[in-house]
Design brief:
alpha/beta; eight-stranded mixed β-sheet; 16 helices; 37% helix; globular
Length: 426
């Protein structure tokens, strides 16, 4: 029988609430000594996330409780299908006392990169909430996030929502912004409408996301990301190597603080190499210079030597413009010399190359590509100098046209691209 409110359940037992509202309205829950709380009829994932947040705060105050069990066995009317969370199962809460001081990670943009980062954090026991596109999130809600690594495949029952308004934000939340650059402004506008001041970590390619984020939020961090992430299908992402990659991070526009050190420590626990620096933007410029070639393999559907001549020419054009603008950037080779740890061979890896993010966007017919935040950045700097960057302009135009027309990778051959860029053979 269920105890009356004035008789908290005993140590070693499980207390079952019939609904989320019953849990929220129970005046005795702060006196519980039970080891588990079970809630039936959770209904929508938004309600579940909110209830979980309350339980976690309860657990912090009565540190004996070790598990949360949430069951949507009797979904509320109208809350079936996409609004139904995982059926049954337990979600362990580890390090409860410490978790009050550790971040909860909101992965905003739970595609390839966001899925890999979120998956790694979850495997390390960190608290994660995913925000992503409906079909992807629907699958995660129903089956969990299927996360494939070189050492095995994991099915992770993560909290997942489609909009920031469904999260139920807490003061310890940290946003890991993983959307593509072309989606940054809209994503942050939607976030700002429902969330107060939260720290934003821009885990994105390009160099303008931090500037955009700082127009919405005061506490912004830049993150240079080198992670081989693949979007396999709705509900499934993969990484090709272990460790999965490396990150460089700092406060934006410069500096460090306690939070960036805490986040770096959690990401290291999750298997990433992480370097905290006082100025991340030269590293992000260096990564962007490397990413200028993303459009080439996406347009040709070819990698390797056939694209090498075009890649060298596009990067040389960019280097000349960036040098004239007085922009400092750190190349991959310079980074390796500064940080030899990242040159250590991976413990495990799948064979084959990881397709670029631009290639993956075209292959999924997503309708947009991030070339505007890569090649487009060089075009913008050139215009500011009263110059042009014709090769980067051409790649940008072709990639964006292909995306808008839902064209798959491989529209042009490497020889045809060389001709379009004025690099014709012979």
């Amino acid at each position: 029988s269920r105890p009356r409110p004035r008789q908290p359940c005993s140590r070693g037992s499980t207390y079952t609430f019939r609904s989320a509202s019953e849990f929220k309205n129970c005046s005795a829950k702060n006196r519980f000594t039970c080891d588990r709380v079970q809630i039936r009829n959770c209904g929508s994932s938004a309600k579940l996330v909110s209830v979980q947040n309350d339980i976690i705060q309860l657990c912090l105050s009565i540190s004996r409780m070790s598990h949360i069990s949430t069951e949507a066995l009797c979904p509320a009317p109208g809350n079936v299908g996409k609004d139904e969370f995982e059926k049954g199962g337990e979600k362990p809460v580890t390090g409860l006392t410490e978790s009050n001081r550790r971040p909860r990670f909101i992965i905003y943009g739970a595609g390839a990169l966001g899925g890999v980062i979120g998956g790694q954090l979850a495997l390390a026991g960190k608290e994660v909430v995913l925000i992503g596109r409906p079909h992807h999130i629907d699958t995660i809600r129903e089956h969990g996030l299927r996360y494939k690594t070189p050492t095995g495949t994991h099915v992770l029952p993560l909290a997942a929502v489609t909009k920031p308004g469904e999260v139920g934000f807490q003061t310890r939340d940290v946003i890991l912004l993983c959307v593509k650059g072309q989606d940054t402004d809209n994503a942050l506008r939607e976030l700002r409408a429902v969330a107060g001041e939260v720290p934003i970590f821009c885990c994105q390619n390009g160099v303008r996301n931090e500037e955009i984020a700082s127009t919405y939020y005061q506490t912004v961090y830049g993150v240079m990301v080198r992670v081989g992430a693949i979007f396999v299908a709705d509900g499934e992402v993969a990484t090709r190597r272990d460790p999965p990659g490396w990150l460089v991070m700092a406060r934006y526009p410069s500096g460090t603080d306690g939070l960036v050190e805490d986040v770096a420590a959690d990401l290291r626990d999750a298997g990433f190499y992480v370097l905290v620096t006082s100025d991340v933007m030269p590293y992000k410029w260096g990564k962007m210079m490397f990413n200028l070639t993303n459009a080439i393999s996406a347009i040709t559907n070819v990698t390797g030597a056939e694209n090498e001549r075009v890649a060298r020419a596009v990067q040389a054009e960019a280097q000349e413009i960036v040098a004239e603008a007085g922009i400092c950037w750190i190349s991959a080779r310079e980074l390796e010399l500064q940080w030899p740890e990242i040159t250590v061979p991976p413990r495990a890896a799948h064979a084959g190359e990881v397709p670029t993010s631009t290639w993956q966007s075209l292959a999924r017919r997503s309708g947009t590509v991030e070339a505007g935040f890569l090649n487009g950045e060089i075009v913008r700097v050139a215009r500011r100098l009263g110059k042009r960057a014709p090769m980067n302009e051409t790649l940008l135009r072709i990639a964006e046209e292909m995306a808008a027309r839902s064209e798959l990778p491989g529209k042009y051959t490497p020889a045809e691209i060389r001709g379009l860029l004025g690099l014709a053979d012979g």
